[in-house]
Amino acid sequence: MSQEKSSYPVSKRGPEDHEVRDQIVTAATEHFSRYGYEKTTVSDLAKSIGFSKAYIYKFFESKQAIGEVICTNCLREIEDEINAALNKTAYPPEKLRVLFKSIVDSSLRLFFQDRKLYEIAASAATEKWDATIAYELRIQKILQGIIHEGRQAGDFERKTPLDEVVKVIYLVIRPYLNPLLLQHSIEFNADAPMLLSNLVLRSLSP
Amino acid sequence: MSQEKSSYPVSKRGPEDHEVRDQIVTAATEHFSRYGYEKTTVSDLAKSIGFSKAYIYKFFESKQAIGEVICTNCLREIEDEINAALNKTAYPPEKLRVLFKSIVDSSLRLFFQDRKLYEIAASAATEKWDATIAYELRIQKILQGIIHEGRQAGDFERKTPLDEVVKVIYLVIRPYLNPLLLQHSIEFNADAPMLLSNLVLRSLSP
C-alpha cells in the first residue's frame, strides 16, 4: 500500500498503512469502551493514542469511519459465533433453532457485556451504517440457506415463496438482532429463542 | 363523592371530584401534547390551567399520576379501535389478521400522529406503568379468545399448549404494540402485519 500513489504523501518510510489503521482501531476500541463513543471526539482519541489529530485523519475521514470498522469487527464476531454454532448440526430444523439461540446469546453478550461498545452498535443501527446493513443482509443469507436446504430435504413446506419466508422469519428475529430493539426485549430473552423457533418450525411444517 | 369523608377537606362546595380530575386531565393532555411530557413540571401545568399547584396535588399525587390517566385513555382508544375492527368478522383466522393490522394501524396513528403524546407512552413503556401492563394483558386476553375460538371451530391446531401459543404470538406482535419498539419498526409497517399474520396462521394450521 505504501508503494502506491497516495493523496497523503508520507514524509518518511514508516509502518504499512493497514498496520497504522489497525493500531488506531485497536486503540479506539479500547478508548471508546472506556469513555463511550458518543462523547469522545477525534481530538480526545488522538491525545489518548499519542497521535496528532491530522495523522488520524490521514487514515480515517471521521470518527464514524473508525466506529464503522469497530462495528464491523463486533458484528463479524457475532457472525462467527453463529456460524460456529450452525456448523455443529446438519439438520435444517435444528439449524433454525440454533440460529435463533445463537443470535440472541451472541448479541446480548457483545452488546450488553460492554455497555460502552453498545453505544457504537446503537449509533450504527440508528444511522443505518453500511456495516449494519451488510450484517443484516448476511443474516438473511444464512436464513435463506437453511430454508432452502430444509425444503430440498423435505423438512419444510414449499408452497410459500422462499423470499416471503426469509423476510418474515427475519422480522420475527429482528427484535433480538437489532441492538435498539434488543435493549427493550431483554426480559423475554430466556424464553424467546425457543418459543419463536418453535412457532417458525410449526409454520414451516410441510 | 364530595359528600364522602375525604382526607382533603374542600373549603366550599364546588364541582364533584371526578369533574375536577377530568378537567385537569383534559387540560394536561392539551398542555403535554403542545409542550411535551418530559419537560413539563406540575408547576407549569398548574400555571397553564389556572389552578394552584397545591390544588392539582389534591387530585393527583404526581405528574406521573396524571400521565397514567392520559396513557390509559390513549390505550383504551387503541383497544376500542381494535375491538371495533374485530367485531366486523366472526372467522377466527380472519380475526387474527384483523388483530395484527389494527394493532399496527392504531398504534402508529396514536403514537406518531402526535409526537408529544408519544413521549407519555414511551415513559409508560420504559417505566412499566400499571396502565401499560394492564393494556398488554388485555391484548393477550383478546388473543387468547381468538385462539380458543379457532381451536373450538377446528380452524387451529390443538397440540401446542394454549398458553405457549398466546405468549409466542404476543412476542411476534410486540414490536408493533410497544411504542419503544414501534419507533424502530416503522420501515416494516407496510408489510409486517400481513407477513406476520400469514406466518402465524401457517403455524396454527391443524
Biggest protein-protein contact in the assembly: A-B, 27 and 27 residues
| CATH architecture tag of the largest domain in chain A | Orthogonal Bundle
Count of all domains of chain A: 2
Q: Helix proportion of residues of chain A, in percent?
A: 55-70%
- Roughly how many Å is the radius of gyration of chain A? 20 Å
Q: What's the helix-strand series of chain A?
A: HHHHHHHHHH
CATH superfamily of the largest domain in chain A: Tetracycline Repressor, domain 2
Question: What's this, in brief?
Answer:
The structure is a homodimer of 206-residue chains. Chain A has helices spanning 17-35, 42-49, 53-59, 63-86, 92-113, 115-126, 130-152, 162-173, 179-182, 192-204.
